[in-house]
Amino acid sequence: MKREAREGSIANIAQAVGGGLMKPSPQPAFAPRRSGEAVTIGLLVAPATLYLLALFIVPIGYILLLSVTDPALSLGNYRRLFTVPLYTNVMLHTFKVSFIVTLSCLALGYPLAYVMARSNDWVSVVFLVAVGISFWTGFVVRTYAWLVILGNKGPLSAFYAFAGLGRPPQILFTSFSSTLGMIHILLPYMVFALYGVMRKIDPAYLRAAESLGASPLHAFRRVFLPLSLPGVVNGGVLVFTICLGFYITPILLGTPRDMMISQLVNQQIEDLLAWGFASAIATTLLAMTLILLAVYNRFAGLDRLWG
After folding, report:
1. Could you tell me the pTM of the whole model?
2. Which of 27, 137, 153, 165 could pair with 160 as two cysteines, CB 3.0-4.6 Å apart?
3. Beta-carbon neighbour count of residue 93 at 10 Å?
4. CA dihedral 93, 186, 198, 209 (to 10 degrees)
5. Can you give the CATH number for the domain in which 94 is found?
6. pLDDT tens-digit map of 43-65
7. What is the CB-side half-sphere exposure of residue 247 using CA atoms within 13 A?
8. Mind giving me the DSSP string for 25-43?
9. Would residue 231 count as lying in a domain?
């Protein structure tokens, strides 16, 4: 009897413990708080979402639709873009100019960014202010400044007349003047991208290399240059991407023979009213830019583009 009573009490205890374990767990006290935070986040994000939807997503969708429906539902606009030599030459010229501008900005911006990153505080501040003033000045103003400088009555012509060199060469409204203007406008982007990376390089690395017998040039080539390559890639992608869609500077300083993609879009809309073909060109330019950024994101990450 005692054994049966003991087994019965053990069974009752097990049932009580099991029933307690099977009871539903109480809801966390902070669940309503999380719900309120989600509503707050949604209200904060909603204006930006609506803004992007109305001014970015919908217009791009409409351009995509026009590119395949105007004047008829087909891919004829894209076929025309990639089969007519005139338009393919414009695309190739755009990439060539963008590549030249990017290399020129790198060649000019790397030494300047190096001096800014390695100099004393006041020297760095002076160069930062100089580059910043150029960056804060509107690119239209800077473009018109080149119109004055390279014009027939500008400082260049005055210098030729003062030096007795005769009539100055025709520089304005050439490929050189257009490229020069774009380099001037995009150089601050390259400098700031390089400076942000170079400033983070510890000078102790160079001192350690020199203490091990490396010359300053060898230490720069084997230590500093590899560490600064992320800035080179960041600045190159930024400058190249912006240059692909440049419009004001080439049309004011350049020549119609050196047309870029953005000028071709403007010509098709304003002169020929070919909205479908212009939409196809714009879509192709957007696709090129997205492919470039996707490749960069695959190997480096877009978050590193801004330092």
Report:
1. 0.80
2. 165
3. 16
4. 50
5. 1.10.3720.10
6. 889 999 999 999 989 999 999 99
7. 10
8. PPPPTTHHHHHHHHHHHHH
9. yes
